[in-house]
Amino acid sequence: MSTAQEILDSFIGINGFTINADTTEFRLETMTAILGIKPLDNHRAVCDGCGQIVVGIKDRKQRFYRDKPVFDWKVYLRVDRRRVNCPRCGVRSERFPFVDGRSRFTRRFELMVFNDIL
Predict the structure, then answer these.
(1) Which residues, in sequence order, are bridge partners of residue 65?
(2) Where are the domains of the chain?
(3) d(Cα 93, Cα 99) in Å, to the nearest integer?
(4) Which of 19-25's residues contact partners 24+ apart within 8 Å by CB, and which partners?
(5) What gap in Å lies between CA 67 and CA 117, rounded to an integer?
(6) What is the CA radius of gyration of the chain?
(7) pLDDT of residue 59
(8) CB 60 within 8 Å of CB 39
(9) 26, 20, 64: which is closest to 39 by C-alpha?
(10) Using one digit for the tens of pLDDT, what is the confidence trace for 20-65?
């Protein structure tokens, strides 16, 4: 039988990341879910410039990414984006598998919008 954590993790469906219950909140008045996610312990940071796996972490900044709605709920992902000390590129943000570059929207949200306008 699956645990609640496993069900939530499969719900977001982002490899290498898990739901962080401490930073997740649900706002009933606006029907908004803010899902705190964090990388799994074995998930290494990847330089957004060159794609190299990087060990050195400079700092972290909290970011929000709009995700696909669930039923009538707006969904946002809250994640601490690490800035890495890349030997090739210098200080850069880490690359996330669910967003493109500096976008504030997940790929699946962008795809949903694209499909809605066609």
Answers:
(1) 77
(2) 4-117
(3) 12
(4) 23/78, 24/78
(5) 17
(6) 15
(7) 93
(8) no
(9) 20
(10) 989 999 999 999 999 999 988 777 899 999 999 998 889 999 999 9
